């Protein structure tokens, strides 16, 4: 039997963590799908996102084998040095490297520097996870532009292949690194099996909305709350529950101030962070995912909502298009310019009102359309081949 090629991978947060969101789950799914083709050796933090306490029951600073056969080296951020990467590299003798993210010093930048210092000549793939989109660069813009300028001047990304998950992300990468950049498009991989579809009661005048995302400017939480406020003094009842880590405390303060000013019939609740293996069950308890994000390279939770059989109300700053034609939701135009947003407010309010006034039969059609969209995506035979092709 031919020995599988080895991939050394670097990621800030990996399983059993779940607080870093869709990108974390997407990479874990890649490992699961490609396990028959490659052996993964993953270097990651021994804590979850925004946590200081190490994972319980997981030993640090040794290679541990997880459920999908991947070997994982959990360590504290303070332990990460070129010397450690050199030792682990020599232990693995990898055929390929996969780097998650762009701006993390210890798990994105230092790995590239170390691989170059070790004269690694094989394929290096970098997943940008939407971090090169104009909307993402617009957050802390000057700092990011300075870093990217230095990176280009020093050749940090020379001979690196960029992993784009959509055609829009391909264009984002070209905008930053030029048309000659080595870019391979391969979508994120979903879980291998669709969850059981659960029906939910839908009555006219009742609407349960959910957001599963960081509380942060790029996820546009405040904007979503403003759209609810613009509905005015309606008699109908809306619940909007927010799940996800508070990424920006000052931004969350603004959100809470607006929540306090909403009419009593609009109830907004912060529910904390949900474990990744409970996302489908949670989505099924709501009528619609409401996430007017400033930009998504893929929007993993959007796919998860479709898989759970729930429509979405999102911005047009994601790869998911023609949702009304597919009868699975709405994508509303949202123009992003630096820190400022321009939108057609009436389109958001019309969509929210349409959802609110919808009755069971029409709503069931949306749920059916959402599930069909997920099935069409998942049954695409090129999904796995495209991800394998990243390393060819």
UniProtKB/TrEMBL annotation:
Domain named Glycosyl transferase family: which ranges?
Answer: 198-332
Stored InterPro entries: Glyco_trans_1, Glycosyltransferase_grp1
The protein's GO terms of the molecular function aspect are: glycosyltransferase activity
* Record Pfam families: Glycos_transf_1 (PF00534)
* Protein's recorded name: Glycosyltransferase
Species this chain originates from: Plebeiibacterium sediminum
